[in-house]
Amino acid sequence: MPMNKTILAISAAALAGVVALQSGAASAERAVVIPAPAIDVPATPGLQTAVLAGGCFWGMEAVFEHVRGVKSVTAGYAGGTAATANYADVSSEKTGHAEAVRISYDPRKVSYGTLLRVYFSIAHDPTELNRQGPDTGLSYRSAIFPQSAAQAKAAKAYIAQLGAAHRFSAPIVTKLETGRFFPAEAYHQDFFDKNPTHPYIVRWDKPKVAAFRAAFPTLAS
After folding, report:
1. Residue 8 has what DSSP assignment?
2. Does 21 score more than 80 pLDDT?
3. Pick from 208, 218, 55: nearest CA to 131
4. Strand 181-183 to strand 175-176: parallel, antiparallel, or no bridges (unpaired)?
């Protein structure tokens, strides 16, 4: 999302135009039908953490907040340093950070592999290099930040599996990366729920959440 995304003032007419786009976007937004991972991370007691990057964290957060078994989702930055983990610096596209989400989930209710399936199928487009939708730059890249060796093994295997399945119209560009996760500013958290009429949310994220619910009805909370 562009730098001026922070709660733009728009006229009633402009908002009406954006809302009109929603029905068309919703009908066009479709989950890619992909197989479940052949290799997954075994369930363990207690909550586990996944960190995924795939474009604007507003939409990523919104999708994963609606996955059954997910306890919380935090919007933030991953791949750079603590000193530059803020929106102004990350927007410069010079920090190495990606907009990302940290997902706390119950592995007895939803597996890491299932989260990856949602991630690749509808949460973002894994074939877009350093961009997603209207947003361009390194901070919008497709990247997985494994939190364990088991997660790294599962993610690497799934990327290879999906590549061999040829379900996407272009090669998958998702990379596995290392780096700490840093929560984003408070105004970015739960942005989808707090700003349901924001033009970006209406145009890009509501259709994505609707498409997730349609494609994964048993996973939707």
Report:
1. -
2. no
3. 55
4. unpaired
Give the architecture (CATH level 2) of 34-215: 2-Layer Sandwich (3.30)
Each residue of 75-104: pLDDT tens digit? Answer: 999 999 999 999 999 999 999 999 999 999
**First-last CA distance in the chain:** 26
Active site residue 171: no
Q: Which of 31, 51, 56, 116 is catalytic?
A: 56
From residue 87, how far is each of 82, 98, 116, 177 by CA, in Å? Answer: 12, 11, 26, 20
Which residues, at least 6 apart from 150, have a Cβ–Cβ distance to it below 8 Å? Answer: 41, 42, 112
Residue ranges covered by each domain of the chain:
34-215
Is-contact 126 52, C-beta < 8 A?
no
Query: Which pTM was predicted?
Result: 0.89
Torsion angle (degrees, nearest 10) of CA 181, 45, 115, 161:
110
Residues 115 and 10: their CA atoms lie apart, in Å, by 35
- Reported in sequence order, the residue ranges of 57-171 that DSSP labels E, i.e. its strands, are 70-78, 98-105, 131-132, 135-136, 142-144
Angle at which helix 206-215 crosses helix 12-28, to 10 degrees, equals 30
